Amino acid sequence: MRLPIYMDHAATTPCDPRVVEAMLPYFTEKFGNPGSRNHAFGWEAEEGVETARRQVADLLGADRKEIVFTSGATESNNIAIKGAAYMYARAGAGQSGRGHIISCAIEHKAVLDPCKRLAKEGFEVTFLDPGADGVITRAMVEGAMRPDTILVSLMWANNEIGTINEVPEIGALCHEREVVFHTDATQWAGKMPVDVDADNIDLLSMSGHKIYGPKGVGVLYVRRRKPRVRLQALVDGGGQERNFRSGTLNVTGIVGMGKACEIARAEMDADRERLLKLRKKLEDRVTAALDVVQINGHAEKRLPHLTNISFGFVEGEGLMMACKDIAMSSGSACTSASLEPSYVLKGLGVGDELAHSSLRLSLGRWTTDEEVEFAGAKIIEGVTKLRKLSPLYDMHKEGIDISKIEWAAH
Ligand code: PMP
Prior knowledge:
Bound molecules: 4'-deoxy-4'-aminopyridoxal-5'-phosphate
Order of helices and strands: EHHHEHEHEHEHEEEHEEHEEEEHHEHH
Largest sheet: 7 strands, mixed
Number of strands: 15
Oligomer: single chain
CATH superfamily of the largest domain: Type I PLP-dependent aspartate aminotransferase-like (Major domain)
Strand content: 5-15%
CATH architecture of the largest domain: 3-Layer(aba) Sandwich
Shape: globular
């Protein structure tokens, strides 16, 4: 076993060697521009892109023509959200001026920030608060719907806590109300099954580097029929990708994305089952050995390969130091000047202290049983050691309710 072990697959995944192999010829031999329509180099590159388009479409249950290649999920989200808002904006209609959008407070920044920009431009955005379990339900969206709602954008699975929203049900609601439905499926697609028709999705974002493909390539699925979704382009230029995304295609990246989707489709079921067992083993191990431990997010409606655990009575930085042989994420986001507790955990009602002492572990295609054993033992050892230094933990053990203590101010 090589240290440090990698348990941060929700941040990024290694490229599958089969993906790299598929990409290699497109750097040197098949280097043409797929836009070059009048010679063999162009046709060859175009063939690579079109094969990838089919591979992605097959993973999503979509038509090839509905796949738009982008630079990643951030760009896909921007095109989907701003592109739909500008296209379906209502001139002065409704309460909100330009139209009402529904999203959620614990979305990725690549959804929150485009929504916030639209709010500044005269749209009105409702950011739903998830309950303590982190799940957005159809009923919550229904409660927020208005006659002037034009767009709903909700992630399929959360990147920090792995919770799963009621996407097919929310999609059905949107279709009943003739509202465009976008889902950021970056953490879901390629790991869990997608059928854009059965799941009632109009727009879907995904990213290559979360599914064992390369970085800097992504996909936006855009529904073409029932209903045909229209978007205003954000970048103008050569008109590639049906005008949704001008610019010479990243052929190598796209070929890699396609191959990653093909492999995901074939191996997803086996991977899921194996990773769920490993994740459960890790969680069982840690919760059996330690008290004052909390697994964040809904108990069942969670991704099989991801867990987010908070540990009471330990200091977050100390915990990361004690576990430096495990590459994972903490419940703190490093901003330029300070450590901010994660807004996702805060959104669930987790306190600042506990958010800081939270760990996100995300397992992947090559995570082994041995690595899970090792990570479990390291975390238990680290937490136990830190708690030995904690007077508050001693008081807790003696049965004193820490929250009721009135600390003297000097
Ligand atoms: N959405 C979610 C849910 C994500 O987890 C990420 C990656 N952290 C992104 C969007 C952004 O993806 P990309 O890096 O491809 O721009």
